[in-house]
Amino acid sequence: MKRDNQGQLNQYLEGKFDAKTFKDSARLWNNYATDYKPLVDFAKDKKVKFIATNIPRRYASQTAKEGLQSLNALSDKEKTYIAQLPIKVTLDTPGYQGNESDDGRPCGRNKSDEFHFSTGYKRRYHG
Predict the structure, then answer these.
(1) What are the backbone angles phi and psi of residue 65, rounded to the nearest 5°?
(2) Angle of the 6-13 helix axis to the 37-46 helix axis, nearest 10
(3) pTM metric for this prediction
């Protein structure tokens, strides 16, 4: 779940939002019902914290287009949604060589490349 949806997630977990309000207020992925809802509902039932850790798409897109250094211009509030700066990324992992531009920005070969800054590595999905 995207980090900037933590507030809505907390409201749902605390019973302040019903399922429809949560769904309408958070940007849930298409596979939420099958892949995430059972875990979220488990956390709600057991009163366990559930932490939204994924970088919001707009910052991942910004990074892909403008590079990691562009994140330095984010407001303090926006920076709470990403990993602490500076972010160190290595593309030395086998299979990732050649997937960056001349200035070091990532440029995946398909639209399904996604960057997970919460853990500082690049993961590639093949669909």
Answers:
(1) -85, -40
(2) 50
(3) 0.65
